[in-house]
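G., the chain you wanted modeled:
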Amino acid sequence: MATQFSNEALKFLRGLKKNNDREWFGARKDVYEKQLKTPMLALIDEVNHAMLEFAPEHVRPPHKIMMRIYRDIRFSKDKRPYKNHVSAWWVRDGLQKTSGGGFYLQVSSTDVLVAAGVYMPEREQLLAIRRYLADHHEEFRKIMAAKKLRSLMQETETMSLTRPPKGFDPNHPAIDLLMCRQWGVSATLPVERATSPGLLKDVVERFKAAAPMIALLNTPLLGKPKRPLF
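Predicted structure as tokens:
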């Protein structure tokens, strides 16, 4: 039977949202471990098995895919110690240190977020992807226009530039893509899906639909000799 979250898990997340402090969390850590961490790791493992068919390079041990619930507050004005959700990030093998394109799952007290893409890439990655899209924009557009993908997910905020990036022709046929600072798709599902046995299917079918996009965006980031930035 496919993994799903309990009503108690969602109750914990609602409580954490209102009481985001170490004392509250510490007194209920066993609830977090049993109702959220354990099922999340189990769900990741089930997703992993499905991804062996369409994105095997993104499969790693569940504990390396699940993200920590603890926030990094070292350089943040927001000192709340915990995230209000549990999440997982399937990065491609070989890009663990720089991220690249990957698949993302987040369960909060209000919804389930399923996403895939390249988010806020570092400067060299951004340039590499732009150069690749300049030559492969037709292929990328075809992938993004696929009926299955469009029925399941929507394009995410591209954080587009106001002017063409340096070194690229403003009249290039892919200038709209080259002005983006990130590329991706996402779907926000009702929180009730978190407690449904159909959660695994919800995640896998969207990851599978987005897999060609992720493979294309990662292509220029893998094993290519470095080129000068300009």
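The chain has one domain: 7-221.

Shout if anything looks off.
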